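Note to self: keep these together.
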Amino acid sequence: MREWVTGRNPVYEVLRARRRHVFRLVLARGLKIEGQLTEALRLAKLRGLTAEEAPRDRLDALSSHHQGVALEVSEYPYAALEDLIQNANKQDEPPFFLLLDLIQDPQNLGTLLRTAEAVGIHGVIIPSAQAAQITPAVVHASSGATEHLLIAQYNLAQAIAKLKAQDLWVYGMDEAPRSRTPAQLRMDGGLALVVGNEGSGLRELVRKNCDELLRLPMRGKIESLNAAAAGSIALFLARQARDKF
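Structure:
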């Protein structure tokens, strides 16, 4: 199955990561070739692609955020859960995973994946149904970070059980009464962070399987942050804790 990735950063990262088959590169007629686009064209040439020119409205039909660039590629290459675990075991630090429980908005998913890549996550696990998948919209929202992540589709409750066997803690983000703040939890060791659905939060079975529930202390007048913002903050707090030890 083929799909179109659009936008300068996403196209560049797809070409740089070299994880997908690439078929066609299309540029809007009259587009100025400069900056990162120059490097993208060089990478495309190394893959045997010659850029085609097309009217801008042809790219408009693919995406409203194409920035004059579109790349036809194979579908997203999901990894196996075992690949994620092996990747974590190769790192010179404790395991670090992100689990996403029914995140449905592509923008939220893309934001979380971009943050996950920035903090050096070892793997991301998402459900295979009822949640946003790694579509071109998510690739664009992540600014191409998806292309450098190992992402597995797996039953989250079963994934949690497998990850616990790797000697790590599983913290689910939740506002339940028993939730604890980052200052009350160890975040510097092996860790799997679970972020729940935008509206309903964690599913009951997923919540029950978490070792601890984590909440961010709110000092202002609003009661909570959305899933993408809260998850991103928690990921950076974990990264900061890990870097101290």
